[in-house]
Amino acid sequence: MKPKDELIQLMPNESFRLLQWKDNLQEVIVLAADGTRMSSAGAGHEWHHHPQMELTLIERGAGTLFIGDAITRFHAPDLVLIGHDLPHYWHMRQPSSGFALQFGLSSEHPFWQFPETAALRGLWEDSRRGVRFYGPPVQAVADLIRDAAECGGMARLALFIRVLANLSTLPPQDRPPLASTTFAPPTSQSAYRGLQKAINLIFNRFAEDLTFNEILSEAGMSKATFERHFKRHTGKHFTRFLAEVRMNSACRQLIDTDLPVSEIALASGYGNLSYFHRQFRDLFGCSPLAFRRKITPN
Questions:
Q1: Rounded Cα gap, residues 283 and 241, in angstroms
Q2: How many CA atoms lie within 13 Å of 287's alpha carbon, on the beta-carbon side?
Q3: What whole-number distance in Å separates Cα of residue 177 and Cα of residue 38?
Q4: Please, what's the largest Cα pairwise distance for the chain?
Q5: Do domains 16-174 and 190-295 have the same CATH topology?
Q6: Distance of CA 177 to the CA centre of its chain
Q7: What is the pLDDT of residue 48?
């Protein structure tokens, strides 16, 4: 699979970019401040990172968010702040829609010369691990983002500031970080491209008998180089990452279907049912059937 880098270019008269998608993350609309609507190819459906921060509002849909070393389920409505250069990937289980705000505001930006911005420093630090938001202010932020899509100029900038202000007022328990550590992209662009190809291969073929040699061939790296870069970039060893992707698929099927555990194991890439049970218990502390009863008691 040819890797896709997301190149975020702001318009000369804009300090942030506002995107909308109405069906899937491959087809997004750039909502320019002057009212122009431009189609663009999105990258949210692939493992990627970009220098800009991103605030994503999921209005419709559900699936799995891979962010740094975290693998977490989500469903609309959901609001997540992704820090700069934090690798992420939205795996949607169904058609989805939502908005994304993309912005820079690095530590050298003049924005931080306003004393009032000190209230945002903690939020910026937390974003390096990704942040999910909860509580009443989330709906207010969603309304502000929708309003921003309908205006431009100072009015849009004012709404953007209000979005940040609302998020900064949330207490720590309502804005927990997602990843367990912060991440830095590989220093080599070719290394990043190789990792992106390998991770996309995992996402696309995890249910198959995928070998480590196939992964190395896709990445174009030696075993030692791949393992070093993969652990640094994802926070996990390859075998753990693959196991969690497969187990996440199994969890979704345990929740969303009535399929027997044996069929779910096979569809998630496990030909050995005993091994599937051992790995499931290792990750979740219970059997697949106990997990199903706990999550879907009725």
A1: 12
A2: 7
A3: 33
A4: 61
A5: no
A6: 12
A7: 86
Residue 259, pLDDT above cutoff 90: yes
Which strand ranges, in their side-by-side order, compose the sheet holding 78-82? 37-41, 27-31, 16-21, 97-103, 53-60, 78-82, 131-132
Q: Please give the distance of CA 220 from its chain centroid, rounded to a whole number.
A: 25
**pLDDT in the model for residue 166:** 93
Domain ranges of the chain: 16-174, 190-295
Q: How confident is the model at residue 232 (pLDDT cuts 50, 70, 90)?
A: confident
Helical ranges in 45-152 per DSSP H: 121-127, 137-148
Sheet of strand 62-67, all strands in order from the earlier edge strand to the far edge: 70-75, 62-67, 88-92
Given this model, what pLDDT does residue 3 score? 33
Multiple choice CATH, 16-174, 2.60.120, 1.10.287, 1.25.40, 3.40.1350: 2.60.120
Q: Whole-angstrom Cα distance, residue 90 to residue 47? A: 8
Question: How far is residue 123's CA from residue 120's CA, in Å, rounded to a whole number?
Answer: 5
Are 264 and 288 spatial neighbours (Cβ–Cβ below 8 Å)? yes
List, in order, residues 6 or more apart from 81 with CB less than 8 Å away: 53, 54, 55, 56, 123, 126, 127, 130, 131, 133, 167
Is 5:197 a contact under the CB 8 Å cutoff? no
Q: What is the 3-state secondary structure (H, E, C) of 210-273?
A: CCHHHHHHHHCCCHHHHHHHHHHHHCCCHHHHHHHHHHHHHHHHHHHCCCCHHHHHHHCCCCCH
Task: Judge residue 295's burial from the number of C-beta atoms within 10 Å of its C-beta, 0-12 exposed, 13-18 middle, 19 or more buried.
Answer: exposed
Identity of residue 42: G
pLDDT at 280 (0 to 100): 93
3-class DSSP state of 185 = coil
190-295: CATH topology is Arc Repressor Mutant, subunit A (1.10.10)
Q: How many CB atoms lie within 10 A of CB 272?
A: 11
